Automatic annotation (TrEMBL):
GO cellular component: cytosol
InterPro entries, per database record: Citrate_synth-like_lrg_a-sub, Citrate_synth-like_sm_a-sub, Citrate_synthase, Citrate_synthase_sf
Lineage: Eukaryota, Metazoa, Ecdysozoa, Arthropoda, Hexapoda
Gene3D superfamilies xref list: Citrate Synthase, domain 1, Cytochrome P450-Terp, domain 2
Pfam families named in the record: Citrate_synt
GO BP term (any one): fatty acid biosynthetic process
Name this polypeptide is given: ATP-citrate synthase
GO molecular function: ATP citrate synthase activity
Length: 260
């Protein structure tokens, strides 16, 4: 069974919309994503949010694990698909996969009626990290412009954004403890995504919850970052970079002592 696309007729249909209408109505990439992922064309504000998220997560330099893997594979002479997949396979809880975790943590705390301070205290007692909070380099004094741009857009354009507002209250508490415990790009996109699902008027509460539970929110990071990984592959091939070998002085050798 399939419910998102039909290619059998005279014209290709995306969730029932002919591709000529997709172009004529200028729904953009956000509209195509909403048709193929959610079987409906979301209002323009939310399509714009999807597009912004894809643009702002497209790349974050060559040092992150996904880009690094892609670069190493490209320099080993592997093809585009192999190099891209090697980068995508690093995405998980430690790299890029925090969107789903942040969406679940913030929405569950909000739904349970926990005050932001209670949420922070309870998470600390359990010895867990708050997904979507914290950055190695950025801080309250050195903000991440990606977060700033999405936050400003959501606060200005979303008619209802209770989870984003909740997450920002959590950030006030965490940054009072440590300045780098900011709401990061995963946290702002995840909370805004939940607000979109719950408050756009396009989904029932049950549908919104199902998308949260099936891990759909990390899709934005995966799709967005694929753009950058492909760019890194092309860059390495264009620069004709040779086989990568990690420098010895960056490796700590901790072998057991030799036998006499």
């Amino acid at each position: 069974m399939t419910s998102i696309c039909d290619e059998r007729g005279q014209e290709l249909l995306y969730a029932g919309m002919p591709v000529t209408e997709v172009l004529k109505q200028n729904v953009g990439i956000g509209g195509v994503v909403s048709l193929l992922w959610f079987q409906r064309c979301l209002p323009p504000t939310y399509c714009k949010f999807l597009e912004m998220s894809l643009m702002l997560t497209a790349d974050h330099g060559p040092a992150v694990s996904g880009a690094h893997n892609t670069i190493v594979c490209a320099r080993a002479g592997k093809d585009l698909v192999s190099s891209l997949v090697s980068g995508l396979l690093t995405i998980g809880d430690r790299f890029g996969g925090a969107l789903d975790g942040a969406a679940r943590m913030f929405s569950e705390a909000y739904d349970a009626g926990l005050h932001p301070q209670e949420f922070v205290n309870n998470t600390r007692k359990k010895g867990k990290l708050i997904m979507g909070i914290g950055h190695r380099v950025k801080s309250i004094n050195n903000p991440d412009m990606r977060v700033k741009l999405i936050k400003e857009f959501v606060l200005e354009n979303f008619p209802a954004k209770p989870l984003v507002e909740y997450a920002l209250e959590v950030e006030k508490i965490t940054t009072s403890k440590k300045p780098n415990l900011i709401l990061n790009v995963d946290g702002i996109i995840a909370s805004a995504f939940v607000d979109m699902l719950r408050n756009s008027g396009s989904f029932t509460r049950e549908e919104a919850q199902e998308y949260i539970e099936i891990g759909a929110i990390n899709s934005l990071f995966i799709l967005g970052r694929s753009i950058g990984f492909i760019g890194h592959y092309m860059d390495q091939r264009r620069l004709k970079q040779g086989l990568y070998r990690h420098p010895w002085d960056d490796i700590s050798y901790v072998l057991p002592e030799q036998y006499n």
